[in-house]
Amino acid sequence: MAIPSMVSNATKTGYYLVLLVMSLTVMGYTVERCVLIDDVVETFECSKRANAVLSMGTISAVFCLCLVALFYAGLHKVLKGEVVVAVALVGLWAATASLVSSPKTFIRDGTTLQSDTFAGSAAFYTSWIALVFAVLLAYWAAADVGLKPPLPADAPTTAAGGGSTASSEHDEAAEAVKPAKESKEAAAPAAAPVAGGDVEAVSEAV
Questions:
Q1: What is the C-alpha separation between 125 and 116, in angstroms, rounded?
Q2: pTM of model > 0.85
């Protein structure tokens, strides 16, 4: 059974626009701290993980922008490859959510030696919400190309086996009832002459 498709292209376009805004939010937060402040205050230092968050937000924004443009242009043949991009977005946002949740992703002030992580920031919450949106969009993209969910290989066999077991039990019960019914039918005619003989004997006696 194929995954049911539940949404139109217009709905998916709106979701990609929301994901685009989330990508820009993560980009803006990271750029402000790792680029703008770093240029003004030379002692500020962003970890490599923080720079990776910026890169992933940028790649996600480009992907979403391209998909939105394709949806608006109505290029349905090109959109068959949407599922690949949607799965890539799931991977990007899963990595981004993991990075912003890590204490090793930090912005450090070299003067005070104080480090700020992404935990509790706008980028933190946006990344986790964007991951949910990306998974949903990947599900819809898989539905549009007619992908089927994996099913257990022994499911039909089990069902058939269960049906044959039930049938055999029913047959055994029927076979058990049949001899009893036949013996009952055979006993009924045998009793009739006895009853008739008794009547005749009584009649002769009278």
A1: 16
A2: no
